[in-house]
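Q: Sequence in, structure out?
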Amino acid sequence: MDGHMEIANYYIISDDTSVENSIIGLKSRSVPFSTSELKNCPMCRSPLRNINRYGRIVRRAWIDEATKKFIVWANAQFVPLASRMEQAEAKLRESVTEKQTPKSPLFGQAELSSALDELSLEPVRLIGSRDQQIKVVINACKANARYKDSFLLRVDIKRFLKEVDEAEQPISRIHGLVQDARNHRGVETEITDVPSVLQVRNRLLATVLLLRCDYAILFDFIIHGGGTASGKKLRDFRLSLALNRNDCENLIQESRSRQQPTQEVEGLLYWARFVALERGRSASLSDVDMTTLVERAHDQLQLAHYICNAHPGQTAGMPAEVSEAEKMLRDATFYAPVTNAEKAAVYAAMAQSFQGTGHWYYCANGHPFTVGECGMPMETARCPQCGATVGGTHHEPAVGVTRAVDMEAEFERRGR
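A: Exactly. Output:
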């Protein structure tokens, strides 16, 4: 049984022939994804979790298995959300048709527009947190189905964001249970070694997706939702998007610390886009302060250009988005963001990975990552969990990178 469980890989066995297979020490720490599978008894196929001798090995395998399932589940949830986001943006880009324009049996269209234009309406104030801003849009558009899909999508993205938070992951829950048990027994020392197996990739992706959804709603409501058929403004807006920019800065800082250039550029882009929306409509900033803010937005976009040039493979298609944001700041001409072809290809690759045709690898520290397109690494990057080199060049994995056959098998089982 010791051979079946490969116990010699985990423990130091005594050479004393008088004591058979006596364990005298640990050979190594319990490394994430160090076990290939959750093994059962080779004779009866029963679980071995109740045998103390193999408890450490079995628990390591169970944690790894739960984490792999979490990764598969998270990818399966994210891909449809990204697809729905593209559909929602496409719907908002559509011009308002006659069917969407409310009609009155008492007025013709011109008379109705003129009457509405003469109304003295209070400015719509979009201030506070993004949740508070979206709530204002919801209240203002109760009778308008234009944003229905976007609102429902936003609820689902927020739910997904909570579900992929580190605190909700299997290893975090085990970490909490162990700490509670230690406290209950009077052990006062804290477990300071927070497991590095925690997955942050999908949380970063979901954070960007929520920013993208909020910006799409606010952009459409402000730029296209405030006019009448006669072309005159029906609504005046007063904005304070400081908290929006704070959210972008948090994304930028974390992405930078985890060496994720794609998400860092996304944060810089939305920081600048929120400045462009607020310019000329600020509820709190003077003209001088707004000018300073616009200059800072230009600096942010210059940094985005620099990152794109430094990481062309990971940020493919994004320089065009950065240039478009610069036009918004320079010319006060607004463009609704469009998913670039490269980003769409990334989502398609993630969908293929979920279907079992993806190509997964482990970094040198055992953290899983995926490679799109042909599935063979052509560029190096950094692992979002530990910063180790991932990917490779010329179809050769980087040093320490290994093929995650078990992950691909899990995706294949899930895709059946």
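Residues 96-120, 227-232, 353-358 have pLDDT under 50 and may be disordered.
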